[in-house]
Design a protein that fits this description.
This protein is an alpha/beta fold and about 400 residues long. It contains 15 helices and 13 strands. It is about 40% helix and about 15% strand.
Length: about 400
């Protein structure tokens, strides 16, 4: 008898939790009211059992990662989001960085002999990083390394760039596609509900505008990710509203690949007085996201933000993706006080992180095509383990 069957036979469950468990067992969608009920009433073990069942239905024991690096053009920004520890105002630009086009291309070239498959480009919003700048940057990256997947810029950045460039969202996204953009990350979503968004990210694109830019990108035949910043001043109903908006757009376009819950960190920002969520709440949030977003293929936990141990735990709570090797190229969460102050893992380290909790490590590309299945791969220091000596050794 599997864990879900045990749960279904638990006579202590109330009628709503029993109904939700039965829906999950039949692969039926839960309602907004049921999603909110999970946040307010369900135990960690209950949501974990349901989320893990869904995860294993979709992916078995597989856990995905990719070999990527981040390029962050600047941390100087026009916006003053209260949750952000990363950005610096223009009047304090001496505390930040602003890379030139040539400096960014030199950073790309550092990886010429490395088997990375993706560059992830996000940063602050500044006038000089405009429509022409980014189309030129994407074109130059593609000219130098055509096979490198460009996952770049959030709707917050595109909204500003297109407005300044006096082009529509439709025109702007088409220009980005033609310049070499391959996919969009999920950042900038924060919380869609205006009641919260206006307080923590006032002045940026609205939730509706964020969704519309992704919708246009999907209509152009391309994929993107989605995020939600949680654990600050929002309530559970705001989280469900956010998940519902994503689920509705996914029903319409099918263009989202992955959902990434992002934990609010309170170091050195205007919300430092807000207590961070606990690990238990983090895991509950992953699990309920997996249960609610039935039309999303993947749920990702971003290990540099939550730390390696919690990332490993999340693999039993609906998560099937741990992002990538990162290579110490992002400062967004280390500056906010995340557990990983120097976020870099080798491929071997990441594979072992996954294996150590009984999961199968799969290196993917950005679009989830399998690059390497590490099921039968042994590393140099594994050779002393019984049964491994006949397998190929990676040095």
């Amino acid at each position: 008898m599997n864990h879900l069957s045990v749960l279904l036979n638990d006579t202590s469950l109330d009628s709503t939790l029993r109904t939700i468990a039965e829906k999950v067992s039949k692969q039926e969608r839960i309602t907004e009211e049921e999603g909110l009920y999970l946040f307010e009433n369900a135990s960690l073990s209950y949501v974990g059992t349901l989320a893990n069942h869904i995860r294993e239905q979709k992916h078995g024991n597989k856990t995905y990662f990719n070999r990527n690096f981040h390029l962050e053009p600047t941390n100087i920004c026009l916006y003053t989001c209260t949750f952000c520890s990363y950005s610096r105002l223009i009047k304090k630009r001496s505390e930040g960085w602003e890379y030139t086009m040539d400096e960014m291309l030199d950073m790309i070239k550092k990886y010429d002999n490395e088997p990375v498959t993706e560059v992830h480009i996000v940063g602050g919003v500044l006038p000089q990083y405009d429509l022409q700048f980014y189309t030129d940057l994407f074109e130059k990256i593609k000219a130098h390394r055509p096979d490198l997947h460009i996952k770049a810029l959030t709707p917050v950045e595109y909204h500003y760039i297109f407005k300044k460039g006096k082009v529509s969202y439709e025109e702007g996204m088409k220009m980005m596609k033609e310049a070499g953009l391959d996919s969009m990350p999920g950042g900038g979503a924060e919380i869609f509900h205006p009641e919260i968004r206006d307080q923590i990210a006032g002045g940026k694109c609205s939730g509706d505008e964020w969704l519309r830019i992704h919708e246009i990108w999907h209509e152009l035949g391309h994929r993107s990710n989605a995020t939600m910043l949680y654990g600050h001043i929002e309530n559970y109903n705001h989280r469900i509203h956010h998940l519902e908006e994503l689920r509705k757009l996914q029903d319409k376009t099918g263009g989202f690949q992955t959902f990434i819950p992002l934990k609010f960190r309170n170091k050195d920002n205007q919300m430092s007085h807000v207590k961070e969520s606990t690990t238990v709440e983090d895991l509950r949030n992953y699990a309920i996201s997996r249960i609610y977003l039935d039309n999303f293929g993947h749920i990702k936990s971003y290990w540099p933000m939550i730390g390696r141990t919690t990332a490993q735990l999340s693999l039993a709570f609906g998560v099937d993706d741990l992002d990538g090797t990162i290579d110490d190229t992002t400062k967004i969460y280390s500056m906010a006080g995340s557990e990983e102050q120097n976020p870099a893992l080798s491929t071997e380290q990441l594979v072992k992180l996954i294996r150590n909790v009984g999961r199968q490590a799969i290196e993917r590309d950005t679009l989830y095509n399998v690059v390497t299945d590490f099921k039968d791969v042994v590393f140099e220091d594994d050779k002393h383990f019984k049964g491994y000596v006949s397998l190929p050794v990676v040095k």
